[in-house]
Amino acid sequence: MKITNAREEILHSIRTNLAASVVFDVNYTTDHAAQNEQPVPALKPNPESLVELFAESLEAVDGHCVVVEGHAETVEAIKKIIAGLRSTKLNPRRVAVSDSLEIKDLIESISSAVEEVEMTPIAADLFSFDVGISSVQAGIAETGTLVLEADRERNRLVSLVPPVHIAILDASKIFNTLGETLAALYRDGKVSQAITFISGPSRTADIELTLAIGVHGPQELFVIIRR
User: Fold this and answer.
1) Contact, 167 vs 222, CB < 8 A?
2) What sign results for the dihedral spanned by CA atoms 105, 110, 111, 112?
3) What's the CA gap between 30 and 23, in Å, rounded?
């Protein structure tokens, strides 16, 4: 009998409080409906913050980033990277470059820094090159990811085979998210047939669960962001 009375008291209390809350529920629903009618403006990061975020994200995955102004500083940055690698086991001497018009303009300027510079050598020969230089069609700031389109230049093997990849990215082509990047690459109702996403140097942990760098691609990734 006591259990039954207690049960009835609890149920009565629930009914009473639910009834009393109806007026508050109506006000809450009305207020939030009005708020939802107001469009929420999209926050667009400024270009400078996107460059900073991209650089931080890239360095978090062991990539290297240099920000430059114009052609002359781009050339100097490439020469400095190559010079810095001279004292390492990589010791670059041969450089393969993509067929991007932007990269073609750099060939003569950087040729004095190495023994050989060749544009898009055949696949079999690429394994004897130390550095690959390509341009980049877009960058994803939140992950420090490079996006390369095969339809825009022959950059896929140049960026994947040599042990060092130097990528040149225009600051204006950095987007905040993957969705924004893909939307920007979607032109005339289609995207490139082959898109390569690169986030830092190549790495794998499927060999006895030990992290290994450079197994399936470059050991070092340098990104030159050109304002």
Assistant:
1) yes
2) positive
3) 11
Residue with tokens 């990061």: 45
Residue 1 above 50 pLDDT? no
Exposure on the CB side of residue 206, measured as CA atoms within 13 A: 5
Please name the helix (run of DSSP H) or strand (run of DSSP E) that holds residue 47, with its range, or none: helix 47-60
Claim: this prediction has a pTM higher than 0.70:
yes
Q: How far is CA 183 from CA 61, 180, 223, in A?
A: 25, 5, 23
Contact 107, 119 (CB under 8 A): yes
Q: What are phi and psi of 131, to 5 degrees?
A: -135, 140
Q: 3-state class of 43 per DSSP?
A: coil
pLDDT in tens, 149-163: 988 898 889 999 999
Residues 96, 162: contact at Cβ < 8 Å? yes
Cβ atoms of 214 and 201 within 8 Å: the answer is yes
Identify whether the C-beta of residue 138 lies closer than 8 Å to the C-beta of residue 174.
Answer: yes
Closest CA to 165 of 63, 59, 53: 63
Q: For residue 61, which phi and psi values (nearest 5 degrees)?
A: -110, 30
